[in-house]
Amino acid sequence: MKTIKEFLVYSKEVQHALDNNLPIVALESTIISHGMPYPQNVDMASTCERIIRNHGAVPATIAIMDGKIKIGLEPEDLEILAKTPGVAKVSRRDLAAIIASKKLGATTVATTMICAELGGIKFFVTGGIGGVHRGYEQTMDVSADLEELGQTNVTVICAGAKSILDLPRTLEYLETKGVPVIGYKTSVLPAFFTSTSEYNLPLRMDDVNDIAATIKTKEELQLKGGVLVTNPIPAEHELDKSYIDSIIEDAVVAAEENNIHGKDITPFLLASIVENTEGKSLVANIELVYNNAKVGAQIAVAYQNL
Ligand code: PSU
Ligand code: MN
């Protein structure tokens, strides 16, 4: 019987950070393989790593390779994930099968949380999380990301959720699961491409030290589950709400017409939105991830300094 340790492979940089108790920030790989086109995806991934380093933390991009959970990737690994056709999108249910069969896998928010926790990493930066899909009353399509936030002890820094999802139901779900949802310098849920929405958040914090203290206290209280920090897209990069809403609406209709289901829905919607905005959504998406990388590193550093 193998132990969990035998499945984990760290880069030198991440191993050094763990040994020396330095702040570490995890990054997911589904955003690379299924969330953005090549070559912008690999560029985004390496720039994110650089931003995290520039803010005093160590980046740990996570993927499934050669039957192992790789924590901290080399530039060649990022390139492989960015352009290999048919990389598996690995959610919690897929993890054991992809590792056992030694296939190449990109980790979703849910799986990156699992792997980060196994690897001793407390912070994780991404773009947007999955949530309750629109029309969920018929499809029961709720992202495994929400269940993971309910049970896995990792803080996820994101730009809220897009209106490809049902935002109020997504917040209700997080409330039921007991997940603290913190607005960083905002009192409303950011909607990914736009910095605001009409949905109020239970918590607002304007200082990363307050966020770090909340995370620490939650740990001390042994309250299991994640923390979700929602960080609005910078104003200069946000898209016009009515413009992006109508593009999203069309993408949701196209998904239905093309009978797209299950794990294929989110990548399909993201790709249609990039196409129909002629790349404007991609620029916004990349900028909000960079902003999350900066804030995520700041929170990780603040936590370390407590
Ligand atoms: N939202 C984005 N970009 C992404 C994803 C979501 O803006 O790349 C990815 C993340 O990996 C997230 C996953 O965990 O999609 C959610 O997929 P699903 O809805 O199938 O749970
Ligand atoms: Mn789903």
Notes on the structure:
- With 306 residues, the protein is α/β, with parallel strands linked by helices.
- The chain has one domain: 3-Layer(aba) Sandwich (Indigoidine synthase fold), CATH 3.40.1790.
- The protein is 46% helix and 14% strand.
- The chain has 13 helices and eleven strands.
- Strands 1, 2, 3, 4, 5, 6, 7, 8, 9, 10 and 11 form an eleven-stranded mixed beta sheet that branches.
- α3 runs antiparallel to α4 (75-83).
- The radius of gyration is 18 Å and the shape is globular.
- Bound molecules: pseudouridine-5'-monophosphate and manganese (II) ion.
- Pseudouridine-5'-monophosphate is lined by residues 28, 30-31, 34-35, 108-109, 127-128, 130, 143-145, 263, 266, 270.
- The site of manganese (II) ion has 3 residues, from loops.
Instruction: Name the beta content range.
Output: 5-15%
| Count of β-strands | 11
Number of alpha- plus pi-helical segments: 13
The Rg value, from CA coordinates, equals 18 Å
Supply the CATH architecture: 3-Layer(aba) Sandwich
CATH fold type = Indigoidine synthase fold
What structural category characterises the helix and strand content? alpha/beta
| Average of the residue pLDDT scores | 97
The kinds of small molecule bound in this structure are:
pseudouridine-5'-monophosphate, manganese (II) ion
Strand count, sense and closure of the main sheet? Answer: 11 strands, mixed
Q: What sort of overall outline do the alpha carbons produce when their principal axes are compared?
A: globular
CATH C-level: Alpha Beta
